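User: Can you model how uridine-5'-diphosphate sits in this protein?
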Amino acid sequence: MKAEICVIIIFSSWQKNQKPLICILNYLWRKKMHILVIGGAGYIGSHVVKALVGAKHKVTVFDNLSTGLEMNLFPENGFIKADILDYGAVKKALQNKVDAVVHLAAKKAVGESMEKPEKYALNNICGTLNILNAMAETGVNKLVFSSSAAVYGNPEYLPIDEKHPVNPVSFYGFTKLDIENYMRWYGQLKGLRFVSLRYFNAVGYDEEGIVRGLEKNPQNLLPIVMEALLGKRSKVQIFGNDYDTRDGTCIRDYIHVSDLASAHVSALEYMAKGGESQILNLGTETGISVLEMIKATEAATGCKVPYEFAGRRAGDPAVILATPAKAHEILGWKAVHSSVDNIIKSTWKAYNA
Ligand code: UDP
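Assistant: Here's the modeled complex, given as structure tokens:
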């Protein structure tokens, strides 16, 4: 098998007029990178780690386990229990022959960010500056950053593309945008290359059931629906049924976490091939309303979801949809796990494991 791959590389390098040895080294180097996944024990991070391991990369997880879970760690990977606010620990982790970093460690509760901005400034902004500075100091220059649709604020047009104005309406969204600006400057001044992935609504669990750690104190719709189904909460409150949408409830672009994870692998491999810095939306351009999500959950699980209509939640736009066309063009990435049925069934499976 290896010999066949070498023959293919030599042939294609001869066609491209390149030196075969360099191509083989490139291939071998690209084949296996050492990735430091900061926040790799969390909900999205653990799925990213699973995808990286599946793509044969070496992974070290760096996580303070404040919201991440020990059960999300894979025994074959390295693990450093430390905080991104500890500059020495970040630098030491990077000095261990790391090729690239995926950074997902952040506080992410939008409501809380409005009440405790100082917590978000410290963890998200100062923590990331530590990572950027330590990367500059150690010469690690490739970063995949978990950004958010929250950088856009209220949509001015739909679907949202990356040229849409950025105008966050939460402090959380502001921290993500601020970090993107720092990354641009570090790109200019320090040679950083980055891919900032703006996630829309992350949902689902890996279908194989390998990642099983449930989020502590979830704030998002689908985990709340699951908890209501399992009797862990009395009912789901639907925040507003008087929006200008097909059934009066808010429409969102839900993307399966395994699709998010594969985009991280593609982004790292894109940078390893010399790709320049990018900011990319990760969504599906398919909208599902809150009520549709509840009805689809009832159909997929055969159980009735207890719910009631409540007032609107502050800051909720009626509809959010992303076009992922740029991610497709640059990374060749496409969402393939994000059908409503798969989103719900994989989540239900995780909640019943
Ligand atoms: N939502 C709801 N009840 C809940 C949680 C969320 O009606 O208990 C609605 C929320 O108003 C939004 C959608 O579900 O329209 C998705 O909210 P979520 O918090 O999951 O993500 P967001 O869109 O805020 O990033």
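A couple of observations from the model: The CA atoms of residues 255 and 345 lie 14 Å apart. Residues 201, 219-221, 224, 236-239, 250, 252, 290, 313, 316 surround uridine-5'-diphosphate (CB under 6 Å).
User: Helpful, thanks.
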